[in-house]
Amino acid sequence: MSLRRFLVALVFAFLGVAGCSTTQSGAPNLAGSYELNGETAAGEAYHGALKLTPNGPGFDVEWQRSPVLESHGFGLQLDEVLGVVAENNERYPGVVLYRVKGGHLEGIWRYASGSSGLGAENLDGPAGLDGTYRITLGRNPTGTRYYGSVTIKKAGDIYLVDWSTPDPEYVGTGVLLGDIFVVGYSRDRRSGVAAYCMGSATAFDGVTGEASDTAVGAELLRRSDASGASNASDDAGARLHALRQGARSCGGPVASRRAPSASDQPQVAALP
Length: 272
Hints:
- There is one protein chain.
- The model is unreliable at 1-26 and 253-272 (pLDDT under 50).
- This protein has one domain (30-250).
- β10 (149-155) and β11 (158-164) form a beta hairpin.
- 10% of the residues lie in helices and 45% in strands.
- By secondary structure, the protein is mainly β.
- It has an eight-stranded antiparallel barrel with strand order 1-2-3-4-5-14-15-16.
């Protein structure tokens, strides 16, 4: 191979690696224990803790929090958002995170107890996350494909999501954080959902959702061993209220982001 051809090949190889972003790229190490301040959708304050334990491309989640909320979960990261399915012994719980670009959604998913791989799912339909969407890419972690449709119904700040692949299969609960749409799902019941924005390696915050509500809850997380963590509740009430009222942003304009491709790993989780 000539020197010129070698240099051209090297440039294209570099571009190929640089263009294949992953869900964990540039992210802080999230594993560990956190102190938690929260507020339910009804505005009731609570305190507790959260622990994140690595599990394949994602995290197992254990909460100690308000008894009206789930205590177990599994989360995946896409850009700056950690999306979590919150469940208590549901059948086949999982989480899917989509980047939203008008009526085009591109996402990643995995079962809570699935294999180490991720699935991919792209949707096309009306803008506004309300209506019926065709699955234009459905890929299981094993590489097999599926097809069907997804119905999204907006109920206040909560979204109710139903999959038909092609028969009715899974039901979910979704929340929107910036340009990332997070849906927790299971086979029989609309699982709870949480979406956190990672502001730093020691602190992040986000919203929670339950299918029975039309408003979101909110949570603030601070590492238990972080300096000043014990004072995290000083301004928690005001911040939690602001989060629930919509003062939250994470990620950025979808148009400025490269959408995940079918070949990216890890990139998207798909429903079987």
